[in-house]
Amino acid sequence: MTIPRPTWLKPALLAVTLPLLAVAVSACANLPMGQDQAAITGLLQDRKAVTVRQGDDGLAALMAKPMTLDSAVQMAIVKSPKLVLIYGQLGLDQADILEAIEIANPRLGLSSLRAGGGKTEAQSLTLPVADLILLPARLNLANQARARARYQLASALLDVQLDVEAAWCQAVAAEQAAQVRSAVAFALQTSADLAERYFNAGNITELDLSHEQAAASQAQIAAQQANVSAKAARANLDTLIGLSPTDDLWSLSSALPLPPADDDRLDELQSLALTHNLSLMAADQDRSIWDQVTATRRATRWLGDTALGLEREKDRDGVRASGPSLDLELPIFNQGQAKTARLNAKRDLAKAQSAQIRLNLSHQIAARADELQRRRQVVALHSDGLIPQRQTIVARSQEQQNYMLLGVFGLIEAKTREYEAYEGYIEAVRDFWLARVELTRLVGTRLPSTPVSLEVGPSASDVLEPSGSAPMTQHDHDHAGQP
User: Fold this and answer.
1) Is 124 helix (H, G, I), strand (E, B) or coil?
2) Is the pLDDT of residue 94 over 80?
């Protein structure tokens, strides 16, 4: 469509001015993430997540200390290559929305006709009618698309942090389990060596010796497998954080934190998810966008590619003529049914996705909350029941062995079972935190029961001390911001 202009406004000036105007308007519909950084930071802060920081100031200081959960997340925010992928993928995900709301460029036409020794020159400049009429609506849609992009980006950043937290828990647990398995293998190998001496002295049978040797071999196999798992868990954590294989100077924390004292109410968690789950907020925003896009399409479908313009002509005699022009699209062969159907389908898909996310959240949060309670009970059964019971068995076995009422093999067996009970405790605590991380992911924010600081459970060295005096001793450590 062309725009009438005053007679003093030359086509050359319009040819420069109107494209610049179109570029300025188009910029409003883009997604300049640098301008949205404050909004994204606010979304993360509302969810008690670590905000994005630029640069690597303080990174060396973090790596010089044992890697806690907090320092792992902070390093990931600085170094994780996944964050770069998130920013790149986000631009691709916005293509459909931006295509639906972008404004067509102005068109400049030039012609020069020669006849009878003279020539006629003409210039024209046209703009689409519908785009001009709907400019305010399109800018509103662009702003909504930017809001949706912020939700998606903040959600992806939060997911990266939760992925790192889960990987940290798995790495710490795997390293502890490997230490315990090594201790079990050492104990059973000692038992097998002792059994060989007893057999050579004629005090035990070949069957007894084979039992001890087989148990030692199995323990060695389990220890090697545990070491492989520990290295794989550490490599996975390195990958998520963005550390290279040569960055091997850091060490992990020695133990996992104990579960917090309280559970969260299910109704409170589900209510929080409706207002804090960023994936749901992005889906709702997407639904609103496509509702408006389809409504706009219905209101303007008959305009088609109608264009209003300005034409200027100079004939062979030098006479100049100018005036408005109207270019009408006649909806004879099609009325844009395919484009309308496509937009309607995308609107319906956005509505279905929003409803599906809402329904899934309700069921998944209920299931995860129940799992978390059961994981807590398993931890308590280990710490309050099985481990103290195994400690008592070791203590009584030691007394009987001192009085020669129990053989040394029985004492080694009792100590081995104590170590295995502690390994089960490590796995129970790990599974509790992994379930809590996933519940946090569903709710979309730190759970209300998250304390400022958490107590850290026993490390492998606490349990593997010869005295075995107090493996369930608790120490206070600051772990602010954990799930």
Assistant:
1) strand
2) no
Residue whose tokens read 């992009």? 149
The H or E element that residue 442 is part of is: helix 408-443
Cβ burial, residue 139 (10 Å; 0-12/13-18/19+): middle
Q: Which domain holds residue 321?
A: 11-22+29-469
Higher pLDDT, 263 or 38: 263
Residue 454 lies in a domain: yes
Six-digit token string for 15: 């040819």
**136, 322 in Cβ contact below 8 A?**
no
By CB atoms closer than 10 A (0-12, 13-18, 19+), residue 217 is middle
In 328-457 the beta strands, taken as DSSP E runs, fall at 454-456
Q: Per residue in 46-56, pLDDT tens?
A: 877 776 655 55
Q: Work out the widest C-alpha separation in the chain, in whole angstroms.
A: 130
In a domain, 397, yes or no: yes
The secondary element (H helix, E strand) that includes residue 466 is: none
Domain total for the chain? 1
- In a domain, residue 4? The reply is no
Does residue 481 lie within any of the structural domains? no
Contact between 307 and 324 (Cβ < 8 Å): no
Q: How far apart are CA 151 and CA 123, in angstroms?
A: 46
Beta strand segments in 253-392, E: 307-314, 320-327
Look at strands 454-456 and 320-327 and give their pairing: unpaired
For residue 167, the tally of other CB atoms under 10 A from its CB is: 23
Q: What is the CATH number of the domain that holds 377?
A: 1.20.1600.10
- β-bridge partners, 114: 119
pLDDT tens, position by position, 223-242: 999 999 999 999 898 888 88
Token pair of 64 as six digits: 């010089």
Chain centroid, CA 301 distance in Å? 40
At a CB cut-off of 8 Å and minimum separation 6, what does 147 contact? 285
